[in-house]
Amino acid sequence: MSYTERNIIETYSAMFNGLSPLSKIELIESLTKSLKKDRIEKADTFYKSFGAFSTEKTAEEIVAEIKSSRKFKNSEISF
């Protein structure tokens, strides 16, 4: 944990000292839900990336197609 993160935690902890026990429990529940949500969203994003590019062509065919579609301009540069 970095110095900055530790300082942030200590600052928030000082603010939470004035809360009622019920408010602290609700805060803990909210933080727990946010942690679970982040973990689920990261997994979903990872699995959604599969199949984003669908084709029957092989990798070699795709590379050949890209290379053949390139167009170069030969222009003389004068200094």
Work out the helix count.
Answer: 3
Order of helices and strands: HHH
Q: Span from first to last CA?
A: 57 Å
Helix-strand makeup class: mainly alpha
Quote the average pLDDT. 83
Overall, the morphology is: elongated
Query: What is the strand tally?
Result: 0
Rg, nearest Å:
27 Å
The percent of residues in helical segments reads: 55-70%
Q: Main β-sheet, in a few words?
A: none
**Amount of beta strand:** under 5%
Question: What low-confidence regions span 5 or more consecutive residues with pLDDT below 50?
Answer: none
Please tell me about this protein's structure:
The protein is mainly α and 79 residues long. It has a domain at 20-51. It has three helices and no strands. It has helices spanning 3-16, 21-48, 59-68. The longest helix is centred in the middle third of the chain and has 28 residues, at 21-48. The chain is elongated, with a radius of gyration of 27 Å.
Secondary structure blueprint with pairings:
Blueprint: H1 3-16, H2 21-48, H3 59-68
The gist of it:
The chain is an all-alpha fold and 79 residues long. The protein has three helices and no strands. The N and C termini lie far apart (57 Å).
Could you name the key traits of this structure?
0% strand, 3 helices, 79 residues, 66% helix, mainly alpha, single chain
